[in-house]
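name: query_chain
kind: protein
chains: 1
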Amino acid sequence: MTPVCIIVERKRRKVDHQYYDGKGRRVIFTERFLCAYSGKKRIQNQSAPGDRTRPRQEKSKKVDCPAKLEVKIYEEDPENVTLRFYGQHDFHDLRKVNYLPLENWVKILIKDRLEEGVDVPTIVDLVNDKQEKKKEESARLEHSPRLYCDVTYEDIYNQYYKIMVCQTRMAENDFSSVGLWLVELESKSYHTFLFGQSNPDTQVYNFGFGFITPWQLELLKRARSFCLDATHHVTIYPNTGMYTIVLCHEVTGRGVPVAYLVTNDQSEEPVRKWLMDLKDLGVSPTQITVDCSKAEANAISRTWNRSVAIRLYAWHVVRAWQKNIKEKVIVGDGEDKRAVINAIFADIRDMMYEEDRVEFFNRLEKFHTD
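structure:
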C-alpha cells in the first residue's frame, strides 16, 4: 500500500464539523486525501492580447483518478485513527512521485535562500539534506514513515520564476505591464520605443517595444559600425524575437549591447521603425553587420538610403559555404571527395581572413584557376 500513501498524501480536503456516521458513531475528526491526479484538466481562454500565463513545464497530471483516502477519529475511541481507501488509482503511473507539489515549508526555504543570493546547487543540497533528516525522524516516530521527494533544479527554477514575476510584473496583462515599465524607464531618462497593431485578416496582434539608456545612446551615436542580430523564442508569444545592437566598446575593446527591440512581427517594418527612431536620435553608422536576414538588410537600406555598407557574419558565411560545397562538388572516379572538399574549404577560409587587399585578389585568382 506504500505507493497509495505517496500519491494521495498531497491533495487534502478537511471536514471541520462533527457528525454521526451510518452506524451511529460520533465522528470528531475527518480528513480526506485526494490523489494528485484527481480532477480534470482546466482549459484556459485568452480574453485579450497579453492575458497569458506562463507555459507549463509538464503536461497536466489531471486524469480524473477516483482514488482517495479518508481519515476518521471517533469520539468513542479518540486515541486511534481509522483509515479507509476508496477507489483505485486509474490512468496513471504510481511511480511518478517526483512531479508532485512541494511542501509549503520547502517552498518557503527555497524562496528565502534565493532572496539571500544562495546558488542553486547549494539550495538543492540544503533542502534535500533537511528532507532526509525529516525522513529519518519520521521513521523513528511513526509506524509508516513519510516519504519525501528530492528537490530538483526545475523546482528551484519554478520558485525563482515566482519571485521574478512579483518583482517585474506591474500588471496582470503583459502588454499593460510593458507599457507601465516603459513609462518608468522614460522617467529615468531612457529613450523608449513602442508600437502595436491588430491585423483584422489574421486576428494577430503585432507588437514591438524597445529601450536604450542615455549612456548606451552616447556610445551608439559615436559608433561608425555595429552588429545587429536577433534572438528567437524569447517570450511565450509565437514568433517573438529580440533584436540587439552590439558594438565594440571604445575603451575595453569588447562587445557591449546598446539597444533592444522585442517584436513578434517578422517583417522589416518594426526594425525599420526602430532604426528610424535611432536615426532621429543621431545614430549614423557607415557599416552594419547582420546575419542572412532580408528583413534586416531591407530595413537598414530604407533607413539610411543605402549609404550604410551591409556585412554578413563570418559564421553564417562559413555555414553557407560548407552546405553548398558538400552539395555541389562532384569528383571523378578514384578521387577522395572528403579530401577535395577540405582543400576547397581551406582555400576560401584563408581568403575570408586575409587582411591585405592585393593578396586577397591574388588568392581569389588562384582559386578560380585551380
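note: Residues 174-312 form a domain with the Nucleotidyltransferase; domain 5 fold (CATH 3.30.420).
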